[in-house]
Amino acid sequence: MIPEKLSEPPRDCPLCPRLHQFIAEWRTREPDWFNAPVPTFFSRDGDDSVRLLIVGLAPGLRGANRTGRPFTGDYAGELLYATLKSFGFSTGEFQARPDDGVELIDTALTNAVRCVPPENKPVGAEINTCRSFLKLTIQRFRNLQAIVTLGTIAHQSTIRALGARVGDHPFSHGGRADVGNIAVFSSYHCSRYNTNTGRLTEEMFVDVFRNVAEYLAAKRG
Ligand code: URA
C-alpha cells in the first residue's frame, strides 16, 4: 500500500528547479496564496473508495496555485466540477474555494505536474520528473478502475505512468485505452481556450463522463 505522503511532493519540492524558482517568486509577490505543489483532492471516503482518477495538466497560476485545490479558482474548474456533480462524482455547491464544501465521491482529482508552470507550459523534463508522483498516486488507489485524462500531456504522462507506450495508446478525444485493468478515457482539456475556440464543447465533455459513468456502473454489475 502506498501511503498518501509518498505520493505527494513536499511543499518545497526542489526536483524541478525552474518550477521551484517560479513558486519562490510568487511566494514573495503573493504571500497569502498557496504557492506550492497542489495535492490530490480525493474522495471523502478514503483511498480505497476511489474508482475514478481525473488527471489535469498543472495548477493554474491564479487557480489551484492560489487556492491549493486542483481546478479551483480558474475557468477550467467551472465545467469540470459541474460535470462531476451531474454524474454523481461529487456533492456540494462548487464555489471555486477550497472551503466550499464540495466532496468527491469514489473519485480523485490530480495533475500531471503538481507545481504551477510559467505560462501554463511544463517542459518535458518537468512532466517526466513529476510522473514519479503520478505513478504513486495511481498505485495508492488500489481499487482504481478508470482514469480521465484532460489534454494530450496528461494523457501521455498517464499512459507512461501505467507502464504502457504512448505509440500504442495515442491521445484521441473521446477515446478509451485499456491498460492492464484500468480504462483510460481521454478528453480535450476543459481550458477556457479550448471551450472558447469550440475545440471542446460542453456536450463533448459531458459525453466523455457519460461513457465513464456507464463503464463504472457496468463494472459494479
Ligand atoms: N487547474 C488545475 O488544477 N489543473 C489544470 O489542468 C488546469 C487548471
Present the secondary structure layout.
Layout: H1 4-7, H2 17-29, E1 41-42, E2 52-56, H3 64-67, H4 75-86, E3 90-91, E4 103-104, E5 107-111, H5 124-140, E6 146-150, H6 152-161, E7 176-179, E8 182-187, H7 192-196, H8 202-220
Parallel strand pairs: 2-5, 2-6, 6-8
Antiparallel strand pairs: 1-5, 3-4, 7-8
The structure holds uracil (URA).
Residues 56-60, 63-64, 70-71, 74, 76, 111 line the site of uracil.
Would you kindly provide a brief summary of this structure?
The chain is an alpha/beta fold and 221 residues long. Helices cover 38% and strands 14% of the residues.
Textual characterization of the structure:
This protein has a single domain, classed as Uracil-DNA Glycosylase, subunit E (3-Layer(aba) Sandwich). The chain contains 8 helices and 8 strands. The protein has helices spanning 4-7, 17-29, 64-67, 75-86, 124-140, 152-161, 192-196, 202-220, and strands at 41-42, 52-56, 90-91, 103-104, 107-111, 146-150, 176-179, 182-187. It has a 6-stranded mixed beta sheet with strand order 1-5-2-6-8-7, with helices on both faces. Strand 7 and strand 8 (182-187) form a beta hairpin. Helix 5 (124-140) packs across helix 6 (152-161). The model has no long low-confidence stretch (mean pLDDT 97). The site of uracil (URA) has 12 residues, from loops. Residues 56-60, 63-64, 70-71, 74, 76, 111 line the site of uracil (URA).
